[in-house]
Amino acid sequence: MSVATIAELFTSGSLEFGPAPESDAPARAWLAKHEGVFDHYIGGRFVEPSSGERFESVDPSTGASLGRVAQGNAADIDAAVRAAREVYPAWAALTPHARARHLYALARTVQKHSRFLAVLETLDNGKTIRETRDIDVPLVARHFYHHAGWAQLRDAEFPGYTPVGVVGQIIPWNFPLLMMAWKIAPALAAGNTVVLKPAELTSLTALAFAELAHQAGLPAGVLNIVTGDGSTGKALVEHPGVDKIAFTGSTEVGREIRRSTAGSGKKLSLELGGKSPFIVFDDADLDSVVEGVVDAIWFNQGQVCCAGSRLLVHEGIAADLTARLRARMEKLRAGSPLDKSMDIGAIVAPQQLERIQRLVRQGVDDGAEMWQPSWACPTDGYFYPPTLFTGVSPSATIAQVEIFGPVLVSMTFRTPSEAVALANNTPYGLAASVWTENINLALDIAPRIKAGVVWVNSSNLFDASVGFGGYRESGFGREGGREGMYEYLHGPAIPRVESHGTRAGASGGELPVIDRTPKLFIGGKQVRPDAGGSRRIESPSGALLGEVAEGNRKDIRNAVEAAHAASGWPRTSGHARAQVLYYIAENLGARAGELAARIASMTGEDGAREVEASLSRLFTYAAWADKFDGAVHDPSIRGVALAMHEPMGVIGIAAPNDSPLLGFVSLVAPAIAMGNTVVAIPSERAALAATDLYSVLETSDVPAGVVNIVTGPKDVLAMVLAEHDDVSAVWYHGAAETCAAIERASASNMKRTFVESAPLDWFHPRAEGPLFLREATQVKNIWIPYGE
Amino acid sequence: MSRFTSASHAPDAGGAQDRALRLHEESARNPGMALSADVIPLIRVNRSAVERRAATIPTRRTVKKAHQAAWLLRAITCLDLTTLSGDDTPGTVERLCAKARRPLRDDLVEALGVRALDIKVGAVCVYHTFVPTAVRALEGSSIPVAAVSAGFPAGLSPLAQRLDEIRASVEAGAREIDIVITRAHVLLGRWDALYDEVRAFREACGDAHMKAILATGELATLSNVARASRVAMMAGADFIKTSTGKESANATLPVGLVMARMIRAYEAETGYAVGLKPAGGIRSAKSALEWLIMIKEELGDRWLSPSRFRFGASGLLTDIERQLEHHVTGRYSAANRHPMV
Fold first, then answer.
1. How many structural domains are present in chain B?
2. Active-site residue B277, yes or no?
3. Contact across the interface for B60 and A341, Cβ inside 8 Å
4. Do A7 and B71 touch (CB under 8 A)?
5. FRET label pair with A735: which of A244, A421, B113, B334, CA 20 to 30 Å apart?
6. Distance (Å) from the alpha carbon of A336 to chain B's nearest alpha carbon
């Protein structure tokens, strides 16, 4: 550059930043070394796709090809799963310390090659080098370091837990390296082996990582990478040799995965879409809010599942904030993602760009006011400018659907409660931001928002020690922290028993029949069933013991509404919930003899023993009610993340047929102990054990609607619950086909399922405790940076 | 910052018209405005969020090659070349003034092709005692002399003496006065006392431009920095300045960011553009560029000039020279190759 230019630059109206390109030489050299042709990584070797097919990987900032990536098919997936299975026993048998060394080596490897990985990621994905260099790659290294720690501590911190086995993992294109790290670090730390499928748009860094991991001594077969498109992912999901699927991506694909794995016994974690609220109260530091918005929606071009894409702002300051946002948007820079002075890089692919354009057009057509800065984006490559919609109504398409682009929609509220209502007015529940200088307000709002992550006065903060994952249709499972480790471990198994169902004759038959027909128990009252029918309850020898009401789908509907109406229960203190559980035990104990006889008459088993065990179980969960603490995580900021155990909401429970009282209590007690309200379907053939509880519940200070009991055809009613979109979880014990059907049906609102087809030994000490409590809760991480 | 400093809370439509008119007077001095003491405590700054933003300012932007050279030259023109040592003598002040006149080695000026730009520093900043020395040494250069008056650095001498010192410095030829505020007024929330003090200083300054040193390292919180910035501007400060250089914490980007945002809000409300001067601890060309980037991003190009932005520094100049020599030769330079300050 000629020196004369300096004087011109100095005297020009504004001091310009000028170009500041990061060198892409190391990444180009790596591409050249592979001559632009890439294979799968299976069993420690790079192997050609069995089909011989490959597809282009493109630099979205220029449209130029970076190379040809292998298209995986079912045969490739099978080879990878077999490689993972083969090495699994050896890998799982390593000492925790040995696995920790491997994870530590991966962390070091990422750090040693950090710039190469950052540049390659930028080339492949189009995100800015600032982000890959300062955010993605450091978080990747941090994730491996953190999980080297979990590998080391696994047996000490998770005694009795075992790895799941071979894990299939499918990751998206928005954070290719980071999502890979989030998947494989906990999986390997727990002792699993992995088959990972990167997104077809962004496969290269996973392959580069595989190469580096190989050099770092990771044993062959522990990590396998099969590239390809959706069909490759489908083959992985459907492979019978896979013990768990972990998926990050769209809710639509998540639903398909939920359906196709239903009944397979595969463990599942899904991190799906979002439409996360960004709530600004009128006492917030507005200039900092503006930067928070930049971090929320103009990070990674808005292609972030937890992007704060719905700006909810107090009506009194909305005009002011809009003006400040527009001024800030003028200052954002979009262009070559390798330029170190860019805020906004390229959209990953033309299809994604078209989707953004289409939704923005629809927003304009729907009457919202659209604003974009005066500067123009580059026209070669796929770029889209930061966009702000104001005057958006909650019913507008752009307020509801995930745009996955740099598009922010803004709405106003008047009161904190209205802010919460708007925030929760979405099928999703991934993340939220709350901005206020008032800690009372912040900590009042955060628990009321249905989201797995809440950032107070901040946005898009991530750390390996803090679990990340969603509520509702944003999926289930957590990645990071202790809570994330549970996704890759099996808890100590509850022993199975033979079903008692067919056992014949017993003492109970000698008791006189009590001629009465219990109704349903809904909203704290005994109500007649909608259809006005009843069903017989017989002794094992076939004698009529009594009749119970025959519930139907309308009764379930009413019960779910009653369960929602008991909205005070989740906010009741643990101590108060414990008191109620103890009181239930007390009143149940007072009727022990009667209940024991009833159970014996229906099951032919030792009723007294079952009642005693049920009383003990109630005490167990009364004990836990104020002790299943969350955690305070220590992320890499000045601040804390509060990992709160929140109740799921309304849980549908179908109790096992055997142990009709103990099985019922073993499921309902942990659910209500954690603040859930339940709709319970008792044992079909021994329902009187549960209907006898009506009067116990009525006299035990259980608030109306906390426990609702609907007797009747268990599987039919359980399916109504599974298909109900206002039920957060379904627990079912019964037929394997129904287990599968429930898992399939749960996909409609991505409710959590906890199903078991094998009869369990409910008397066993392992049939109670944290395993059930974790099912009854979801972890919400509230990030609270502090400092005045 | 708080909503109380925002454009949307400007008084009325007539005020808006006045504001538009004033915006056209680029060099108009800030006359200040009446204090509304009750809203000052409501100004709140979120420290963690400010620090996050400040941390990414140097990572979101960089300037390279010829652009960097142009930016560094601009930094020189925004420099208040400063000596504020207890052992200053007329000799050291004269040496400083000579450097102010020729901040760059002649061969570098030539090689950079910027002879015509006549690059000079923004001002020379000295204690009151040395104002006559500096005025003499800078005669004919058009470089103003700035004096730290008003009981620098603690500002705890009797008010009458501080006012007398300001008037004496102006009398002696200082065209800029760097005053210090009474930190206790901020720490105890005595906003009217702070306002009255700065207002009195401003009157004593007369035509001399006044930079109000907030001594941010002693104000405890960023919210206090924002409040003090606001009151100083309302009292008529032409510049707000971070530090005396004598506090244990000097100019930091988060502090500068808070002050810049307050300046922006003040201009939006009143139409007057107040200047910013970070001082103390800025020793490298790299950190000077970070400040300029912050100013460009938060306040815009209009502030990248000595009339609105100054660095208070001395050793900084040598490092800028070294970087400019590197730009010319491609070799890393040594401090001893550049005439010392």
1. 1
2. yes
3. yes
4. no
5. A244
6. 13
Report how far residue A300's alpha carbon sits from residue A296's, in angstroms, rounded to the nearest whole number.
9
The answer to whether residues A438 and A416 touch, using CB atoms and an 8 Å cutoff, is: no
pLDDT (tens digit per residue) in A407-463: 999 999 999 999 999 999 999 999 999 999 999 999 999 999 999 999 999 999 999
CB count within 10 Å of CB A673 equals: 28
Cβ–Cβ below 8 Å for B2 and A285? yes
Task: Say if A286 is an interface residue toward chain B (CB within 8 Å).
Answer: yes
- Helix, strand and coil in chain B, % to nearest 5: 55, 10, 35
The amino acid occupying position A680 is A
| Chain A residue with Cα closest to B9 | A320
Q: CB distance B3–A292 less than 8 Å? A: no
Q: Does residue B13 belong to any structural domain of this protein?
A: no
The boundaries of the domain holding residue B299 are: 39-337
> Rounded distance, CA A372 to CA A360, Å?
11
Q: Are B80 and B121 a contacting pair, CB within 8 Å?
A: yes
**Residue B29 covered by a domain:** no
Domains plus CATH for chain A?
36-271 (3.40.605.10), 276-469 (3.40.309.10), 551-785 (3.40.605.10)
B321 within some domain: yes
Mind listing the pLDDT tens digit of every residue in chain B (341 residues)? 444 444 433 334 344 444 444 444 556 999 999 999 999 999 999 999 999 999 999 999 999 999 999 999 999 999 999 999 999 999 999 999 999 999 999 999 999 999 999 999 999 999 999 999 999 999 999 999 999 999 999 999 999 999 999 999 999 999 999 999 999 999 999 999 999 999 999 999 999 999 999 999 999 999 999 999 999 999 999 999 999 999 999 999 999 999 999 999 999 999 999 999 999 999 999 999 999 999 999 999 999 999 999 999 999 999 999 999 999 999 999 999 998 88
Residue ranges of A 628-687 with Cβ closer than 8 A to chain B: 637-639
- One-character DSSP codes across A406-473: SEEEEEEESSHHHHHHHHT-SS--SEEEEE-S-HHHHHHHGGGS--SEEEES--S---TTS-B--SGG
Contacts of A573 (CB under 8 A, 6+ apart): A626
Could you tell me which of A48, A721, A785, A162 has the C-alpha nearest to residue A492?
Answer: A162
pTM for this predicted structure: 0.95
Question: How would you class B332 by CB atoms within 10 Å of its CB: exposed for 0-12, middle for 13-18, buried for 19 or more?
Answer: exposed
Runs of H (alpha helix) within A239-394: 251-261, 286-297, 318-331, 350-365
Question: Could you read off the pLDDT of A559-618 as tens digits, one per residue?
Answer: 999 999 999 999 999 999 999 999 999 999 999 999 999 999 999 999 999 999 999 999
Q: Tell me if chain A has a CB within 8 Å of the CB of B286.
A: no
- Alpha carbon A710 to chain centroid, angstroms: 30
Q: Considering the domain boundaries, does residue B3 fall inside one?
A: no
**H helices present in A34-136, as ranges:** 74-93, 96-112, 114-125, 129-131
B3 contacts on A by Cβ (under 8 Å): 282-283, 286, 316-317, 320
Locate B131 and state its tokens: 């104002």
**Strands A639-647, A777-785: pairing kind:** antiparallel
Pairing relation of β-strands A631-633 and A639-647? Answer: antiparallel
CATH of the domain at B87: 3.20.20.70
Query: What mean pLDDT is reported for chain A?
Result: 96
d(CA A693, CA A683): 13
Of B59, B296, B297, the CB nearest to A130: B59
**Closest by alpha carbon to A526, among A696, A685, A686?**
A696
Amino acid A788 reads E
Test mutation, A2, A127, A134, A287, chain B, max B CBs within 10 A: A287
Cβ A190 vs Cβ A489: under 8 Å: yes
Count interface pairs A-B at CB distance under 8 A: 134
